[in-house]
Design brief:
By secondary structure, the protein is an alpha/beta fold. The protein is built from ten helices and 15 strands. The chain has a nine-stranded mixed sheet with strand order 14-13-12-11-7-10-9-8-15, covered by helices on one side. The structure holds nicotinamide-adenine-dinucleotide. Nicotinamide-adenine-dinucleotide (NAD) binds next to helix 1.
């Protein structure tokens, strides 16, 4: 068995470049080919990294050197790429959101399990050193039993703005889903149950279309969630806030934690953090390659992240119905 995984990229846009840089930084993985429906983009990236370029997914999947693929397309196209890759015998890492519906998440999990292939979702925040430290400290009981976890993520995300390198599909409900829930939400809803190692059972969410930027989509949500262990998480998110915030407070029976950017304060004292969030993507890619090479289930497996997508679906439905929703109701 080789100790280096050869991979292909499907969708050679913005995040694909981060994946490729992370591939270059690791010695257990190498890039063999890139595929994009936009031939100019596929050719440009392939030329830069001296690999093969394809404009047709089937051709990439027939490439015998490609053992695994990174799905980096707009959201609507994730499922088809994951299922076809599994059927072609390739391991898969798919960018967040895993998919726009739970039925699609289940199709992905089934296809990869039937093919005996690894399915990992790009929950890069699970690989930030500071988040790994927080999870470990909670598990070690540093702040006792967690009562409340309160988290905010506010930014002004305008994919149509003159300085934006993001593309217009982010505003297209059919291709991207509700942006605040399906672009940023997958990171945010995922980290809550991951930190606490406890699934969310109930969600009560409210959403507003505060501005016209997202053309009929809600742009701001707040969700109150109950976990199986009794903890409560509150997540507030906006993509139309001109001042940004990305922080959290965790209140436990024996202490509390505050995180703002890289700054972690536990029981009133700053705790040094080794490593930065910039290490998240290389850590994630190294872990993906190791799981494929060793036949090991990744932490951010399809099954684990399927729960995150069920919580997001519950938040969406709760806001529509204006009532608390049980996550167990969210079947595909
Ligand atoms: N982890 C993160 O922090 C992070 C950050 C940004 C984006 N993302 C995710 O990465 C994915 C891609 O986002 P992006 O910003 O790179 O988008 P992008 O628009 O920059 O790139 C997408 C690429 O996919 C290509 N494409 C479209 N349909 C395709 C298809 N059917 N088959 C193959 N290629 C196709 C497009 O031509 C484009 O080059 C999304 O899921 C997004 O949410 C994750």
């Amino acid at each position: 068995m080789s100790d280096v995984l050869s991979v292909g990229i499907i969708g050679a846009g913005g995040i694909a470049r981060s994946h490729i840089r992370a591939i270059e930084e690791n010695d257990n993985i190498q890039l063999a080919a890139v595929m994009d429906v936009d031939g100019t983009r596929a050719e440009a990236v392939a030329a830069e990294y001296e690999v093969r370029a394809y404009t047709n997914m089937e051709a990439l999947l027939e490439d015998p050197e490609v053992e695994a693929v990174h799905v980096c397309t707009p959201h609507k196209f994730h499922t088809e790429a994951v299922v076809k890759a599994a059927e072609a015998g390739k391991h898969v890492i798919v960018e967040k959101p895993m998919a726009l519906t739970l039925a699609e998440c289940d199709q992905m999990v089934d296809a990869c399990e039937q093919a005996g292939k690894i399915l990992m979702v790009g929950q890069v925040m699970r690989y930030y050193p500071v988040n790994r430290l927080i999870k470990r400290m909670i598990a070690d009981g540093e702040i006792g039993e967690v009562g409340h976890l309160m988290r905010r993520r506010y930014s002004y995300f305008n994919p149509t703005g003159p300085d934006s390198h993001y593309r217009h599909w982010y505003l297209d409900l059919e291709v991207g889903g509700i942006c605040v829930l399906y672009c940023f939400g997958p990171h945010e809803y995922d980290i809550l149950h991951w930190y606490l190692n406890s699934p969310v059972t109930e969600v009560y969410a409210r959403g507003t279309e505060s501005t016209e930027l997202y053309r009929g989509q809600k742009d701001t949500y707040t969700a109150v969630m109950t976990h199986a262990n009794g903890s409560v998480s509150v997540l507030s998110q906006s993509v139309v806030c001109h001042s940004s915030a990305h922080d959290q407070y965790i209140i436990g029976s024996k202490g509390s934690m505050m995180l703002a950017g890289q700054k972690l304060i536990v029981n009133g004292k700053e705790v040094p953090v080794e490593g930065t969030s910039g290490e998240g993507m290389p850590n994630q890619i190294r872990e993906f390659a190791a799981c494929c090479l060793e036949g090991r289930e990744p932490d951010a497996s399809g099954r684990s992240v399927r729960h995150t997508m069920a919580v997001i679906e519950a938040a969406k439905q709760s806001a529509e119905r204006n009532e608390p929703v049980q996550v167990s109701e969210m079947t595909s």
